[in-house]
Automatic annotation (TrEMBL):
Residues 1-13 have a biased composition (Acidic residues). Keywords: Membrane, Transmembrane, Transmembrane helix. This is Uncharacterized protein. The lineage of its organism: Bacteria, Bacillati, Actinomycetota, Actinomycetes, Micromonosporales. Residues 1-21 are annotated as: Disordered. The chain crosses the membrane at residues 80-101, 110-129, 161-180.
Length: 211
């Protein structure tokens, strides 16, 4: 079966043009990996905060069982588990996208925008439901109960979590801006024709020559 050399020449030319991504794409790739690392750290500290809550909740239950009647400890735990889930999901999705955006693949660029937008909104929802406000005493409890209630949430968690969220959102916005630059548009739209083909291209390469 004759070999269609014209298609092969076009493929070679496309691959030659697809050597290195633009600087903006490389910067976006590094930022995505950095955001994934921050998200992983954020998930880890949320898990530590859950462990602290479990121990502190046992202390509160012994001192004043009625103070957990409205579900203070479960509400704080749910908030922390939400933070853990969002951060872990972002870490698992942003890390591979940091590699995929370096390829001349328009779908990878679009998916990065979508994941970033959804992730940023999920982070803002978590900040709005700040668990630090859930365990505050009303003032009528004994002093030891008030201390136990304030200790439900690890004292370091609100500030470190807020810093991580700000870093992630700023990084996501920076990635979105970098992937919207004109040089990046040319990379994804013009060079994508030189991406390595799949089985469909191979089938066309070996089609019978036109008579």
């Amino acid at each position: 079966m004759p070999f269609d050399e014209s298609l092969d020449d076009g493929l070679d030319d496309g691959l030659d043009r697809n050597e290195d991504p633009p600087r903006a794409v490389r910067s976006a790739s590094r930022l995505l990996v950095a955001c994934a690392a921050v998200a992983a750290i954020d998930a880890g500290q949320a898990i530590l905060a859950v462990r602290h809550l479990n121990a502190a909740g046992d202390v509160l239950s012994r001192l004043a069982p009625q103070n957990d009647g409205p579900g203070v400890v479960p509400n704080i735990r749910w908030s922390l588990l939400y933070d853990t889930t969002v951060a872990a999901a972002l870490a698992l999705m942003l890390a591979p996208l940091g590699y995929l955006v370096r390829r001349p693949s328009q779908p990878a660029r679009i998916v990065t925008w979508c994941v970033g937008a959804v992730g940023a909104m999920a982070l803002l929802v978590g900040i709005a439901g700040n668990p630090d406000d859930l365990g505050q005493p009303t003032g009528g409890e004994p002093a030891e109960v008030q201390r136990a209630m304030r200790n439900l949430l690890a004292g370091w968690y609100p500030s470190t979590h807020a810093l991580a969220v700000v870093a992630e959102i700023v990084g996501i916005i920076a990635v979105a801006v970098l992937l919207a630059r004109s040089s990046v548009v040319d990379f994804y739209h013009l060079r994508s024709q030189g991406a390595k083909p799949g089985l469909w291209w191979e089938a066309r390469r070996w089609r019978p020559a036109d008579r």
